[in-house]
C-alpha cells in the first residue's frame, strides 16, 4: 500500500498529471502481451507527436533564414542547449542497451556508461568555446577557417555524411525493431513513421523544432528514468548494498555480476575503444553543430557543463535500473520471460522450478519490463513513448547536420564558391532533408535483417579518426596546412573504415567469414587510425612549403585571437 | 575601426598572451587529469579484474570497482563544471579586459 502511494506521489511529482488519474486502473491491468498492439503506449506517443508538431508549427513561423534553419538564430540559452545536447546524445541504444547490459552482466554496463561520458570533458576543455568563436553553421566553418575552402569543405562534408550515415542506419534499424516490440507495429510502418516525423520536424521547424524535440525528449527520459531508479531504491530502503545483495542472490551469475567480466578483452582493445569514445564525441557533426545555436562562448561552455551533468546522472540511473530489473523481473518470471520449451512443454529444473529462456522481446527490453513492474501499464506506455521519442530526437539532429553539410558546405561553398544567397541555401537544405529522410527510410528497411551492432562504434571511430584530428590541428596548431589536414583526414577515414571491415565485428559477423579469420584483432581501430591521421597531418603540413601554406600559417595569429577571445565571432541574429 | 586593427592590438597586448597561456595550461591539466582517471580505470580492469571484484568489506557484496566506477562518472561531471565555472568567471574577465583595452586605443 505504501509502495502504491509512493508510486502515485512520484508519478505526479514527475509531472505526469494527465496520466496520474489513470494509474490506479492501469496498474491493475498488469501483464499485457508485448507483441499485441499497445494502445496506452500509442496514445502517449500520439500526445508527444501532437505537442512536438505544434512546436514545429510555431518554429516554422520563426524559421525564415538559413541561420534560423541551421542554428535557431543562435538564440538558445546555455541551459536549454545543455538539455538539447543531452537529448541529442542519450540514444535509445544507451538507455535500453546499457540497462540491458547491466541486466545481463552487471558491472560491465558501468564500464560502457563511463566510456560514453568521458568525451564530454574533452569537448569542454578543448573545443566548445573555440567552436563557438570560429564557427557559424557547421564544424567545417571551423576546420576550414584559414584554409582553402573547396578541399577542406569537401573533406569535412564527406566526414560528416559518412558519420551521419552509419549512425542513422543504426538508429533506424533500432527504431524499427524496438517499435515492433513496444507498439506491436510492423517494422516497415515504424521505420516510415520515424522517417516522416523526423522530416516534418527538420523540414518545417529546422533547428528550433529539432532543439525543442530534443529538450522535451531529454526531460521525459530523465524524468522516467529517475522515477524508475527511485522506485527500485525505495524497495531497498535507499541502500544500494541491499539491492546488490538481492541481485547477486537471484542472478544466474551470482557474485560475478559485481566484477568486470568479458567486456574488456585485451589492453589494446580497451585503450582503442576508449579513444574512439573519448575523442569521437568531439567529432560527431550533429553534436558539434549544437554549439552554434548559443549566442556566446560563455553559453557554449554552460551548455556543455549542463549536458555532461545530465548525461552522467542518466548513466548512473541506467545502472540502478539494470540492477532493479535483475531483482524485480525475476519476482514474476511468467510476465517477463520466455518459457524454456522442451517438446512443447516448459522445461523444469532439478529443483522442480520451471525454467526460463531470456526476456520477452530480447535483452534490450530490461528497462521496458521494469517500467511495467514499477509503474504498471500506463508507465510502461510512457517509457515506450519515451524510447520512440528518443529515436526521433536523435535522427532529427542527424538529419539536420547531414542537410547542413550538403547545403552549407557542398552547395554554398564548394559549388557556388560562397556566392549562394540565404534563400537558395535554405531551399537546398530542405531538398536535402527530404532526400536524407527517404534514404534513411530506405536504408532502415534494407538493413532490417542485417547485423548493425558495429555501426555506432564505427561512427565514433570515423569521428575520432577523421573529423576530430582535422578540427583539433586546424584550430590549435599554427603550422597545419590544407594539404596536411585533408591528407590526414582522408587517411583517418579510410583507415577507420578499412580496419573495421577487417575486424571480427564485420569480417566474421557480417561477411560470414569463419571465426578467427579476421585480420584486425582489436575491438576498435581508433588507436591506429587516429594516430595515423595525426601523424599524416603533421608530416604533410611540415613538408608543405607552397605559397598557399605560407599564407595559411600567416593567418593563424588572427584565427587564434578570434578563437580565444571571440572578437569578430558570429553573433546571434535578432528576431 | 577595422577589425584587423583590433586583432593586431590584442596580439600586441601581453595580457592576451597571459590569458591564452593560463587558460591553455588550465585546460591541459584538466584534460590530463581526465585521461588519468579514465584510462587508469580501464587499465585497472584490463590488468587487475580480481582487485576490482574484491568486496568493500567482508560480508558485503558491493565491490571496490562499483564506487570507483561511479566515482569516475561523478569526477567527470565535477571536473567539467569546475572548468566551466573558472572559464566563465576569471578567464572571461581577463578576456573582456583585453577586448576593452583594444577598443579604447
Number of strands of chain B: 0
Total of DSSP H or I helical runs spanning 4+ residues of chain A: 25
Strand content of chain A: under 5%
- Coarse shape of chain B: rod-shaped
Main beta-sheet strand count, sense and barrel state of chain B? none
Distance between the termini of chain A: 53 Å
CATH class of the domain at 35-63 and 78-341 and 360-449 in chain A: Mainly Alpha
Overall pLDDT level of chain B = 90
Architecture overview:
The complex is a heterodimer of chains A (575) and B (105). Chain A is mainly α. Helix content of chain A is 73%, strand content 2%. Chain A has a domain at 35-63 and 78-341 and 360-449: Sodium/glucose cotransporter (Up-down Bundle), CATH 1.20.1730. Chain A has a two-stranded antiparallel sheet with strand order 1-4. In chain A, strands 2-3 form a two-stranded antiparallel ribbon. Mean pLDDT of chain A is 86; it is low at 1-34. Chain B is mostly helical and 105 residues long. Chain B has a domain at 37-105. Chain B contains 4 helices and no strands. Chain B has helices at residues 3-12, 14-47, 49-52, 65-104. Classes of the chains: A mainly alpha (575), B mainly alpha (105).
Amino acid at each position: 500500500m505504501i509502495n502504491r502511494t509512493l508510486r502515485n506521489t512520484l508519478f505526479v511529482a514527475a509531472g505526469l498529471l494527465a496520466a496520474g488519474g489513470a494509474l490506479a486502473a492501469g496498474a491493475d491491468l498488469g501483464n499485457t502481451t508485448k507483441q499485441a498492439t499497445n494502445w496506452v503506449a500509442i496514445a502517449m506517443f500520439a500526445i508527444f507527436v501532437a505537442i512536438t508538431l505544434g512546436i514545429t508549427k510555431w518554429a516554422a513561423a520563426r524559421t525564415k533564414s538559413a541561420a534560423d534553419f541551421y542554428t535557431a538564430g543562435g538564440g538558445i540559452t546555455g541551459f536549454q542547449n545543455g538539455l538539447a545536447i543531452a537529448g541529442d546524445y542519450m540514444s535509445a541504444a544507451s538507455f535500453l542497451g546499457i540497462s540491458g547490459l547491466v541486466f545481463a552482466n552487471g558491472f560491465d554496463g558501468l564500464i560502457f556508461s563511463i566510456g560514453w561520458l568521458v568525451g564530454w570533458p574533452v569537448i569542454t576543455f578543448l573545443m566548445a568555446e573555440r567552436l563557438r568563436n570560429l564557427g557559424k553553421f557547421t564544424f567545417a566553418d571551423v576546420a576550414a577557417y584559414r584554409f582553402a575552402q573547396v578541399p577542406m569543405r569537401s573533406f569535412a562534408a564527406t566526414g560528416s555524411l559518412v558519420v551521419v550515415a552509419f549512425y542513422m542506419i543504426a538508429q533506424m534499424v533500432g527504431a524499427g525493431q524496438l517499435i515492433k516490440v513496444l507498439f506491436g507495429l510492423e517494422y516497415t510502418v515504424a521505420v516510415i513513421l520515424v522517417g516522416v516525423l523526423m522530416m516534418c520536424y527538420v523540414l518545417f521547424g529546422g533547428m528550433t523544432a529539432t532543439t525543442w524535440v530534443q529538450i522535451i525528449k531529454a526531460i521525459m527520459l530523465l524524468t522516467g528514468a529517475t522515477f524508475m531508479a527511485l522506485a527500485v531504491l525505495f524497495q531497498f530502503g535507499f541502500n544500494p548494498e541491499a539491492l546488490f545483495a538481492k541481485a547477486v542472490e537471484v542472478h544466474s551469475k551470482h557474485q560475478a555480476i559485481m566484477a568486470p567480466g568479458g567486456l574488456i578483452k585485451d589492453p589494446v582493445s580497451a585503450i582503442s575503444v576508449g579513444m574512439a569514445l573519448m575523442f569521437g564525441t568531439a567529432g560527431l557533426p550533429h553534436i558539434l553543430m549544437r554549439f552554434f545555436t548559443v549566442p556566446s562562448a560563455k553559453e557554449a561552455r554552460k551548455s556543455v557543463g549542463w549536458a555532461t551533468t545530465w548525461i552522467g546522472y542518466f548513466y548512473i540511473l541506467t545502472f540502478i535500473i539494470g540492477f532493479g530489473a535483475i531483482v524485480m523481473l525475476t519476482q514474476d518470471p511468467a510476465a517477463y520471460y520466455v518459457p524454456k520449451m522442451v517438446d512443447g512443454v516448459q522445461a523444469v529444473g532439478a529443483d522442480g522450478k520451471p525454467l526460463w529462456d531470456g526476456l520477452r522481446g530480447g535483452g534490450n527490453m530490461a528497462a521496458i519490463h521494469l517500467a511495467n513492474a514499477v509503474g504498471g501499464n500506463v508507465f510502461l506506455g510512457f517509457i515506450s513513448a519515451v524510447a520512440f521519442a528518443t529515436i526521433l530526437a536523435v535522427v532529427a539532429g542527424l538529419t539536420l547536420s547531414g542537410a547542413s553539410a550538403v547545403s552549407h558546405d557542398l552547395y554554398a561553398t564548394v559549388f557556388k564558391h560562397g556566392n549562394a544567397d540565404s534563400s537558395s541555401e535554405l531551399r537546398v537544405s530542405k531538398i536535402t532533408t527530404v532526400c536524407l529522410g527517404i534514404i534513411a527510410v530506405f536504408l532502415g528497411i534494407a538493413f532490417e535483417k542485417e547485423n548493425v551492432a558495429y555501426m555506432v562504434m564505427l561512427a565514433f571511430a570515423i569521428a575520432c579518426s577523421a573529423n576530430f584530428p582535422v578540427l583539433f590541428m586546424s584550430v590549435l596548431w599554427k603550422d597545419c596546412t590544407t594539404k596536411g589536414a585533408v591528407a590526414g583526414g582522408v587517411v583517418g577515414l579510410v583507415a577507420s573504415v578499412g580496419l573495421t571491415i577487417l575486424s571480427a565485428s564485420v569480417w566474421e559477423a557480417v561477411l560470414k567469414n569463419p571465426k578467427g579469420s579476421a585480420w584486425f584483432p582489436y575491438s576498435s581501430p581508433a588507436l591506429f587510425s587516429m594516430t595515423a591521421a595525426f601523424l599524416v597531418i603533421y608530416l604533410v603540413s611540415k613538408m608543405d612549403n607552397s605559397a598557399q601554406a605560407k599564407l595559411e600559417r600567416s593567418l593563424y595569429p588572427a584565427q587564434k585571437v578570434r578563437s580565444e577571445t571571440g572578437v569578430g565571432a558570429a553573433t546571434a541574429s535578432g528576431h | 575601426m577595422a577589425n584587423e586593427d583590433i586583432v593586431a592590438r590584442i596580439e600586441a597586448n601581453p595580457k592576451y598572451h597571459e590569458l591564452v597561456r593560463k587558460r591553455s595550461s588550465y585546460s591541459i591539466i584538466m584534460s590530463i587529469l581526465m585521461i588519468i582517471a579514465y584510462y587508469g580505470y580501464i587499465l585497472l580492469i584490463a590488468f587487475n579484474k580480481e582487485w576490482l571484484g574484491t568486496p568493500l568489506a567482508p560480508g558485503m557484496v558491493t565491490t571496490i570497482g562499483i564506487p570507483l566506477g561511479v566515482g569516475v562518472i561523478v569526477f567527470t561531471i565535477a571536473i567539467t563544471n569546475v572548468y566551466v565555472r573558472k572559464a566563465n568567471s576569471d578567464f572571461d574577465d581577463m578576456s573582456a579586459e583585453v577586448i576593452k583595452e583594444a577598443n579604447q586605443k
